[in-house]
TrEMBL record:
Coiled coil: none annotated. One of its GO terms (cellular component) is cytoplasm. This is Dephospho-CoA kinase. Its main location: cytoplasm. One of its GO terms (biological process) is coenzyme A biosynthetic process.
């Protein structure tokens, strides 16, 4: 793959989208794993057809789209069903991510994925950037943003790779527990460094 790829990740509520939006406004293409995960189960897709064949029409809303709440209830109650779903969707998502990364035409391209390290996606990246905040900040931000219960957010955080392990794996770490202006200054400097590295790869 010719493009220089930056893997962007961060735990829930860390502010990964703020970072990807900033870099996108600077002219950098963003391939978002969350968006691709929705695309592969759109009506008429191979993914959704396989899910309906497996779970039945109860998994659809009245509009014919995937009923995520019903599906979530099934897979969280049954580890085998969760494994089946992952075995179906992960290859579809990965193939689509790689296709979009190859088509990107900016100076470098971002692969944005909350589970970048958990799903081994860093193998496709030249460098990785972790957007990092303390766990207490993750909890507060996510509860406010999603109007969620603290216990629910705690479970999501526990299911993700630990902050310590992510910090050890990442090539670059951006502290997002600072004033927005200071974070943007740091991010602008990183952006310049990424442009230089991408230029070297093309040379």
């Amino acid at each position: 793959m010719a493009n220089w790829i930056l893997g962007l990740t961060g735990g829930i509520g860390a502010g990964k989208t703020t970072v990807s939006d900033y870099l996108n406004k600077s002219g950098i293409c963003v391939v978002d794993a969350d968006v691709v995960a929705r695309e592969v189960v759109e009506p008429g897709s191979e993914g959704l057809n396989a899910i309906v064949a497996h779970f039945g029409a109860q998994i659809l809303t009245d509009e014919g789209t995937l009923d995520r709440t019903t599906l979530r209830g099934i897979i969280f109650a049954d580890e085998n069903e969760k494994s089946w779903l992952n075995a179906l969707l992960h290859p579809l998502i990965r193939a689509q991510l790689l296709a979009q990364l190859a088509q990107a035409d900016s100076d470098y391209v971002i692969l944005s994925a909350p589970l970048l390290f958990e799903n081994g996606l860093e193998q496709y990246c030249d460098k990785t950037l972790l957007v990092d905040v303390p766990v207490e900040v993750q909890l507060t931000r996510t509860c406010v943003r999603d109007n969620a219960h603290q216990q629910q957010v705690e479970r999501i955080i526990e299911a993700q790779m630990s902050r310590t392990d992510k910090r050890a794996k990442a090539d670059f770490i951006l502290d997002n527990n600072q004033p927005l202006e200071a974070m943007h200054t740091e991010l602008a400097a990183l952006h310049q460094a990424f442009l230089q590295q991408a230029e070297k790869k093309r040379a």
